[in-house]
Amino acid sequence: MSTVQVELPEELFALANVSGTPSRSASKLIALELFRERRISAGKAAELADLSLDEFLEFAAQREVPMHYTVADWEQDQSVARKLKL
Question: Longest Cα pair distance anywhere in the chain, in angstroms?
Answer without folding.
Answer: 39
